[in-house]
Design a protein that fits this description.
With about 160 residues, the protein is mainly β. It contains no helices and 20 strands.
């Protein structure tokens, strides 16, 4: 399934499987998905070439976002080029977070909630701080990468 929309907002529960969200734009949050207070599970899907002010690919606020076996690539935002979590929980497993950009924080991932990353490729992302990951919350990220390469920014991983 391929989605194309100005902004998709899901406040409750959403399961995305074998889907593509590409070339979407949001004025504020979540170029692909803007999740507000619910649960979103993404499996075997692609989020590419989306943009927003926060969370170019997916924005997660006060909810739970789980991304598994998926690709988050070529998205852009001011904060969280690929994925952005604020006060929620973000779990990323066996996925590719590649070639995303943010003008300020978190080229690949911006986290101000609880972040767990396991067995991912995080490569080629760029931002002023935290080219790969900008973490301003709780994070379990040490030793959990397949590849963590070629990040561009003042720091590759910024941890508070």
């Amino acid at each position: 399934m391929t989605w194309s929309s100005k902004e998709v907002v899901f406040p409750w529960h959403l399961t995305v499987t074998n889907s593509t969200f590409s070339n979407n734009s949001a004025d504020w949050r979540g170029g692909g998905i803007n999740q507000d207070g619910g649960t979103v599970t993404v499996t075997n899907s692609t989020f590419s070439d989306n943009n927003a002010n926060e969370g170019g690919g997916i924005y997660n606020y006060i909810g739970a976002l789980t991304v598994t076996n998926s690709t988050i690539s070529h998205n852009s935002a001011g904060w969280g080029g690929g994925l952005h979590t604020e006060v929620g929980t973000l779990t990323v497993t066996n996925s590719n977070v590649i070639n995303n950009t943010a003008s300020t924080f978190g080229g690949g991932i911006y986290n101000a909630g609880k972040l767990t990353v396991t067995n991912n490729n995080v490569a080629g992302n760029s931002s002023y701080l935290g080219g790969g990951i900008f973490n301003h919350g709780e994070a379990d990220i040490a030793k959990h990468f397949k590849n963590f390469l070629n990040q561009v920014g003042f720091t590759t991983v910024w941890l508070k």
